[in-house]
User: Fold these one by one.
Assistant:
Number 1:
Amino acid sequence: MFITTILTTFVLVKTLDKYILKSFLVPFLATFFIILFVLVMQTLWLAFDDFAGKGISLIFILKFLWYTTLLVAPQALPIGILLSSIMTLGSLSENYEFAAAKSAGISLQRMVRPLVFFAIFMSAVNFMFLNYVYPYAILKQINLKMNIKKKQPALALVPGSFNTEIPNYQIKFDEKYGEEDNLLKNVLIYDLSAKRGNNKIISAKKGELVSEEGSRYMTLILKNGHFFEHHEKNNSSYKQRQKMPASYADFDEYTINIDISSFAKDDLDDLNYTRNFNMLSLKQLKDTLPTIKLNYDEYVKARAKNLFLNVNAKDLYKYPDSLINSKLSLNLLDNFDLNQKRNIVNTAISKVDRTLNNIKSNKDSFKHKRKVLNLYDIEFYNRVAFSLSCLLLFFIGAPLGSIIRKGGMGLPMILAISIYVLYFFTNTFGRNLAEESSVTALLGSWMAIILMLPLALILTTRATKDKGLFDINGFFKKLIDKFKNLLPKKEKTT
């Protein structure tokens, strides 16, 4: 009899595990592929203007979509687990299936155990994906986008900064507009084709890019502009160059034919960018970080040494008290006459201004080097932290589903989106703080886990004790009891 009971319980539990896994996998696969499709379409919509009507073949657009799918899959996986866990456990609670299992002596922890193992397995899958597939996908996608821009040089030009992709020219403009994004506003061009520096400068209020497929030239038509060229002879000295004449003129229309034949030699599958921080695996990041940190430390030491030499700190000496002249005033300037004071103050102000200007001129370079180091550090820690999001969001979604006791796509969808937005916001916020050196890279990468882990623990505890999400009655009861304890008790009269 005892053996029969054990066998019956074993078969029942095994059947229950299969049933719960099946109930979870069906909505998980459905939600995962729906979310994946939405994320891919969002990325395609943002990049649509770069591909539509640019002569890019369908096979390369499909490659771009494939690489995009690999990139967004690690984001879709946690959302799918969160939503399906709320839906599955909400549906089981709504249909009183959990109550039936509890009446048979099976606890909530035992019922969701197969789902816990599945969440751990998916976290491991997400980690492998982030460590190997994600770097490969971003490597291929970025190189594909850059090679497509080379095939269409007009795509490579971005407003607001000097564009150096086109050989022998530096082009800057304020805005790109028009149906084909080939019209430019407030154009400034440095013509470097003569290999003599920025001796030829052209500015115009408007510009138009004209390029035909297969042509080795791109035509830039400028309107309402100004032309300046500083003439100089080969091997001329600086004083001779100062005496050389310069030519300048205003124009209504000016045409420049730019040779872009070098772009046609590049294949769309070429890999020219391979060392970006998000293109490396954890092992490669670990090997690269020491070199970047060493270069950064050497740069900081060099700037500190330069500052030390500029302020002449090495000329300061500490004299023993026995050598101090008692006739000298402790205020050093009082020991000099007016002209000497003026010279000392002017020299000091000049050195301070020079030092401040030196610091300001190196400020952007310092921030850039620190930011690059932070990006590598953040990527290293975030690979592990983000892979654990599957497990974290499961321990939020599963107890939440059993508490709300509501299945389907309505309320679970709203809760899942709200929770993931909160997780994504805190993760992005932490990474941005770490990027700007406000917090360490380790803390910034794990901030979302640290902030949302208490929520997972609270929900899991309340679901295990079969309590609601908010025990309003219990809360007010405690307040009333505390208030009663503060009041003086009346003595009973006989």
Number 2:
Amino acid sequence: MDAPFDTVIRNASLPDGRQGMDIAIADGRIAAIGPALAPRGRQEIDAGGDLLTPPFVDAHFHMDATLSYGLPRVNESGTLLEGIALWGELKPQLTQEALVARALQYCDWAVAKGLLAIRSHVDVCDDRLLAVEALLDVKRQVAPYLDLQLVAFPQDGLLRSPTALANLKRAIAMGVDVVGGIPHFERTMAEGTESVRILCEFAAGKGLRVDMHCDESDDPHSRHIETLAYETNRLGLQGRVTGSHLTSMHSMDNYYVSKLLPLIREAGVAAVANPLINITLQGRHDSYPKRRGMTRVPELLAAGVEVAFGHDCVMDPWYSLGSGDMLEVAHMGLHVAQMTGQHAMRACFEAVTAAPARILGLHGYGLAPGCHADLVLLDAASPVEAIRLRAARRMVMRRGKVISTTPRATATLDLPGRPAQTGFRLRSPAGLDAENT
């Protein structure tokens, strides 16, 4: 008799702590999950007790700038403002072909790291909309293996840049998915507030999601997130709005934050922190004590706000490092936010998987019958171990098809009286007589 399933993955650990689980796949979707499933698959994959998870999701990225590091020059100060100025210098030199080539290379990296969904902001302040056209082309090309969601982002300010609003509307008409903004970069607080109102009203009229760079500043008086929450409630946009960065909250006084957090929760506004970038770009004017700059992740979570982590930048005018590894992002977020309790560390793993999937509104994401068979097998036994090791992606699967594999991280040793090989996992629960292979 023919095997009823296309693939069965055997003996997997799942992020919720279940172990020894089998996952049956048919027609690109998860058909069944349980221990020791009896039906066979035409393909059988032994997970060997390793962690099987839905793919990583990046809720905040700039794919139009990625891999452009050193063009036309290097950001010598490493600051946010020099990065913005440098991007302004680079924009006139951009070509659609180069934009597409760099973005596709980054998507290759993303797939190899198990990152199969990205929300990318794309600058609309260039009247040519070259980057918009390029990333719409990339979105079409990568659709079989990666979900790319685009945000129309008025990088130079909606009201500060004369053609930004018209260009944003053009970008949405061309097929860009989400309305973006940057209220703290407007000339005045009042214009920042006005930009939030204009953009939210436009999004509400079009039935679109909103994702604004909001209060990416060390200024505790940058409070546009309050306006964003207000407009979300006023316009009935609950569950469709995201405030990205929110770094000014790190510098706000506790009394004001105690009022602000319930407003964000009441409005159903999500938050995206970008640990790698927030920790390097913020606090630049401080000597010591020096502020960390990342928003109040534990407090937002405790208030019931949906929180995700984003990569933000990889080798661009703002950040010269990065490889598309969302476990590196979670690792930094865990440390900066001092989230080292067991529950908190698992929340950091969720901040690069399930939480951003909900923020992006991904359909069919998850580990349940009926979900897409988009899966990542990690060289780790648990979410916490995956973060600790930035674990190798042994297998990446899209719609039931394996699209990337990576060997386990194993070192060969030549040490007297010691094993010939070692991995980096502590297999003994008590930590004694551990088998490090």
Number 3:
Amino acid sequence: FDSTSVYIFDLVTILSKSHADRNVYPSAGVLFVHVLEREYFKGEFPPYPKAGDSSNDPITFNTNLKGYPDRPGWLRYIQRTPHSDGVLYGSPTAEHVGKPTIIEITAYNKRTFETARHNLVINIMSTEEFPLPYQAEFFIKNMNVEEMLASEVLGDFLGAVKNVWQPERLNAINITSALDRGGRVPLPINDLKEGVYVMVGADVQFSSCLREVETPQNQLRCSQEMEPVISCDKKFRAQFHIDWCKISLVDITKVVAVHSNRPDPGTGVLPDIGEYNPPSESLKSRDYFTDFLITLAVPSAVALVLFIILAYSMCCRREGVEKRNMQTPDIQLVHHSSIQKSTKELRSMSKNREIAWPLSTLPVFHPVSGEVVPPLHPDNYETTSMPLMQTQTIQMKKHQRVGRRQPLTSLPVRL
């Protein structure tokens, strides 16, 4: 932006065009943006093996405070894909003035697996106008944080705010992604954005347009999840969709410090206390043998008692076969023995099918003629389904008819 204009937008954008350590001088209370361009790191990596191939290496960046694993609390970093540039952004405060901050930037080439490291020295300067007394935070629904960090997009937004606020001095204080405020990742449909919070500060009172959201009618519409009626919304609507129900207007000159004696939470970075100092060998050692015995002895004793009770019940409390027979009547034992013998005989007969036929199936003599009568069903199993007595009766009737036709003869009978 032109520093000679009436309205000055303090937006610091620094491009990494050199590979040596670089010093930057942001101002406290003003948004700081540093772009890590992939094009300027490609020279650190070997080119493609074939001449003429377009180099589009996937490059990612890792940023951390020198000597520590993470960045300072006020500094954030974002890179959407390995084929896009990385961005460092944040808003330093007056507490960081005069403290040089060295950020180590490590570039990783995912094609060659090589790295390149450079340092960024941030020297935070103080400003007389900081902090600006009137601060407004807008929530823009149709922007992502890396899109809003672009200098031309942020300049257009500050220009729209300038038209509705008319301040003498206007600064972009901070930018925060909606995901850092507990927002959810949008669905990948209709080109939805995650949203971004933009805080700006000015040196004059809020305009009537910005205060329209505080009216009872608009507060009621916001409680019913309806869009409030803002007269100056059309100046933003062409490029920025603002959720006016989430706008925050703060006059820091009227804010009362509630926790003035609260301890300083610090920057979240551990102090440099030197190397790790392990505890000395003079510490008293603890004997765990007693604890070990108690842990094993108590369950073992309980298990042993239960085993003894079970063994006594199973072995020592049995009556035995002899005692049972002595208490049983003799007639019952005889009956049981006979039944058992019969059962064994039937089972042995059922196992052996080749034994002799019963007497009812053997050849018999006719009582009148003395002829030998053939077996009732020799090798003929069709008659086995008939009762034995019924089959024998039929056979005897046939022989009686034959005997009537023949003369009767006396047969010697021996007693």
